Amino acid sequence: MDTSKIILVTGGARSGKSAFAERYAAALPGRHAYVATARIFDEEMAQRIAIHRKRRPSSWQTWEIPQDLPETMERLCQSSDVALVDCLTLYFSNYLFAHDGEDDEAIIDGALAELQAVLAAFRQAGVTAVLVTNELGCGIVPMEHVSRLYRDLMGKINQAAAAEADEVYLSVCGITTELKHQAVCLPEVKS
C-alpha cells in the first residue's frame, strides 16, 4: 500500500514554515533527503543556510539542487523515503532567471510542466514530499515587469502544488494550520 503524500507548507518570510516543514518531515519514518534550492550569493545567505543545516538531523542526505530538479528525481527518489524541498520560491526564481528573455507565458508553462514532472516522480516512486514555498501574493503590485512576472509565476506554481497536495499548511507568526481540509467547496454551476 502506497502511503506517500505531497505536503505543501506555505507562509510569508520568517513565518515559521521551514521549521514546521522540518519537524513534519522528521516525524515521518524512513530515509530523509533535504533538497536545498538556494544559491549562496553573499555572506548573509550563507548564514541562513548554516542555520537550516544546524536544525536538521545529521542523518539526512543533503541535495543541493538550485535548478534542473527533474533530471535528479530518479536518483533522489531511489535514495529517500521522505524528501523535504526548501524551497519552491527560490527554485523557481532560479528557473525564471535561467529562462530570461523567453516569452512570459512560455516561462510560466515551462515552470508548471517542471513542477508537474517533479510531483509525478515523487508519487510514482512512493516518496513523501514536503514542499516549502512562500506566499507572495499578499503585498502590493510590484512596479517592475520581472517582479510582477515572478509574483504571477509563484501564484500559479503554488496553486498547482496545492491542487496536487494531500495536505496544505499555512504558517503565520510561527503558528501553522492545515488549510486544504478546511477549504470552502462551492457547488458546481449547472448550465
TrEMBL record:
Which enzyme class, named as a word?
transferase
Would I find Kinase among this entry's keywords? yes
What SUPFAM superfamilies has UniProt attached to this entry? P-loop containing nucleoside triphosphate hydrolases
Q: Which Pfam families match?
A: CobU (PF02283)
This protein's pathway reads: Cofactor biosynthesis; adenosylcobalamin biosynthesis; adenosylcobalamin from cob(II)yrinate a,c-diamide: step 6/7; Cofactor biosynthesis; adenosylcobalamin biosynthesis; adenosylcobalamin from cob(II)yrinate a,c-diamide: step 5/7
Its domain of life? Bacteria
- In the UniProt record, does the keyword Lipid biosynthesis occur? no
Which reactions appear under catalytic activity for this entry? Answer: adenosylcob(III)inamide + ATP = adenosylcob(III)inamide phosphate + ADP + H(+); adenosylcob(III)inamide + GTP = adenosylcob(III)inamide phosphate + GDP + H(+); adenosylcob(III)inamide phosphate + GTP + H(+) = adenosylcob(III)inamide-GDP + diphosphate
GO molecular function terms noted in the UniProt entry: adenosylcobinamide kinase activity; cobinamide phosphate guanylyltransferase activity
E.C. designation(s):
2.7.1.156, 2.7.7.62
Q: Which UniProt keywords apply?
A: ATP-binding, Cobalamin biosynthesis, GTP-binding, Kinase, Nucleotide-binding, Nucleotidyltransferase, Transferase
Job of this protein: Catalyzes ATP-dependent phosphorylation of adenosylcobinamide and addition of GMP to adenosylcobinamide phosphate.
Family label: Belongs to the CobU/CobP family.
Its recorded name reads: Adenosylcobinamide kinase
Native species: Megasphaera intestinihominis
Cite the source lineage.
Answer: Bacteria, Bacillati, Bacillota, Negativicutes, Veillonellales
Q: Which gene carries the instructions for this protein?
A: cobU
